[in-house]
Amino acid sequence: MADLILLHGGNHGSWCWAPLLEELAKEPARFQRIITLDMPGCGSKRGRDNSQLNLATVVKELNDGLRTADVKQSILLGHSIAGALVPMMAVEDPSLYSQLIYLATSLPAEGQSIMQLLGTGLHGEDPEHVGYPIDPLASTPQALSAAMFGQDLSEVQLSWLLSEVAQDSTPPAVALEPVTRAGYQGLMPATYILTQRDNILPPLWQRRFAERAGAARIIEIDTPHEPFVSHPALLAEVLRRLS
User: Fold this and answer.
1) Which domain holds residue 223?
2) Which of 12, 147, 194, 231 is the most buried (most CB within 10 A)?
């Protein structure tokens, strides 16, 4: 059995996996351990000054935590903006991982940043940019978060999610620094889990990201962007099949 490593997306932290962890605990023998990571400034690392960090230092900190935990040949799952980090984490220390899972994950082109990939318009306005579900320039952060993360959630779930999101600060470099996947291609097996009703990353873009990830397998699920909150039982079953 391998360890399962979970890396959150933007303005999230390890807290976001709680509903999924509850489902995975129903069959605990599927994974040796489940380890949830926090980017600096998020989750258990809230309050950190992450303004001067670059992608390489964030990658090293995350991998250092796994090395300290004596992780080897694990399954690494990254969500959303973690697509800027997962390939670099694999290249920095391939011994840590045996398989990569990209969950509704954005992968910019080589030399492009996440923010350059997203642009500033709406979905479908510009074929070169992903865009947003509502105007990011005319919306409050809370309204934008609700539009992106609120699908299929109850009022209680959404309130919990937004209150946590407001407290996390993703390292700016993860969104602003151009990415590199030098040394990544063909390094290890990769799977892409595509969320069909995603209000952040349209399926057309997710298929492009799966190709950039070198994913030999694409698994499509009928969920929005955050199935670990909205459909944790379904996601848990997919992960069990991939273990």
Assistant:
1) 4-242
2) 12
Where in the chain does DSSP place strands (E)?
4-7, 34-37, 74-79, 97-103, 190-195, 217-221
Q: How far apart are CA 116 and CA 130, in angstroms?
A: 9
Domain count, the chain: 1
Residue 9: CATH number of its domain? 3.40.50.1820
Contact 37, 7 (CB under 8 A): yes
**196-213 pLDDT, tens per residue?**
999 999 999 999 999 999
Burial grade of 49 (CB within 10 A; 0-12, 13-18, 19 or more): exposed
pTM metric for this prediction: 0.96
> CA angle, corner 176, sides to 47 and 90, nearest 5?
85
What is the structure's pLDDT at 101? 98
